[in-house]
Amino acid sequence: MALSLSSLRAWSPPVLDARYRDAGLFVLLAVLFGGSFIAIKTGLRELPPVLFAGLRFDIAAVLLVGYAALTRPRSSWLPRTRGDFLGIGVAGLFLVTLNNGLLFLGQGPTTPAMASVMYGLNPVLAPVFAWWLLGDRLSWVGALGIGVALAGVVVMVQPSPSTLTSANSIGQLLVLGAASAVALGSVLLQRVGPRMDSLPLTAWAMGLGAVLLHGVSLAAGEPAGSVTRMGTATVLSLLVVAIPSTAVAYAIYFGLIGRVGPVRTNLVAYVVPVVAALFGWLLLASGVTVWTVVGFLVVVTGFALVERATLRAEVVRFRRRLWDDNLPSSPPSRDD
């Protein structure tokens, strides 16, 4: 049967249910974030760590600032208030410079799976800084959860006089420092109270962080000439980290926060280690120890204790939504 031109113009593609769309984006976000640990590990073979981090945000900042400028009114993507400029400064220093500088330095001697598990501690550490800086109440169950999560770190690192001085343990502690920088920066960002949207604020912070990272790289004496000697694998790893795993991933991340809330979105931190471990096994032949798995499960238990009230509310909300969806849209008529 032939289709007329008018019928083709009238046709529109089916609209995907919002729940399935967001679930798909959540999985994609975990893949993008998890893949970044593999790409970083690959690029560190030829690039110095801080320089690599700086190059990542050179590319990502340009893309995100351009995206914000094209998709948002000028009043929403330009900083205007004192809080906006302070927010960009805090995010640029803690969430970009310290976070990525420590992450890239630490990931060299450790595995992608271990690094992603350590990095996933930032949602557990944030309540500690919120209690300290914002005066948020921390219950004894929440304190217990933080202790349980830190016990998970001990299980993974297995500290001893010999292991604490090993390159692998030092790398793990540096990644833990990156997670701490994210947690502290997030709380400080809440304290300064910027008014601009999160996405353009992050874009400007990436630009500031890129400048700071290049300054640190020069001060540390990293060879800038290594950029001209990059092989194909290093160039591809840089592009993967900068574009899909940073620019695209952050756009998805902030979109999910706006639609499904920060709690459910940040649960991606506990899917990322699984993705990173799988990619590391497939692409780098890096194994996962039993202690890493056990420590990860202990950390997840600690997170559940810290966020028990919010998680309980999310479960109730999810059940209510399922119940509402299963109810008939209208009562049956007498003629049925």
SS elements, strand count: 0
Largest sheet: none
Instruction: Report the β-strand fraction as a percent range.
Output: under 5%
**By helix and strand content, what is the structural category?**
mainly alpha
Q: Residue-averaged pLDDT, rounded? A: 81
- Runs in which pLDDT lies below 50 for 5 or more consecutive residues are 1-15
What is the C-alpha radius of gyration, as a whole number of Å?
22 Å
Give the overall form: globular
- How far apart, in Å, are the first and last alpha carbons? 36 Å
Number of helices: 15
Q: Give the H and E element order.
A: HHHHHHHHHHHHHHH
Helix percentage range: over 70%
Question: Could you walk me through the main structural features you see in this protein, from its secondary elements to its overall organization?
Answer:
By secondary structure, this protein is mostly helical. It has 15 helices and no strands. Helix 6 runs parallel beside helix 9. The N terminus is likely disordered.
Write the layout of secondary structure elements.
Blueprint (H helix, E strand, L loop, with lengths): L4 H6 L7 H26 L5 H23 L2 H4 L4 H26 L4 H8 L2 H12 L6 H18 L9 H26 L5 H22 L12 H29 L1 H5 L5 H12 L6 H17 L1 H19 L10
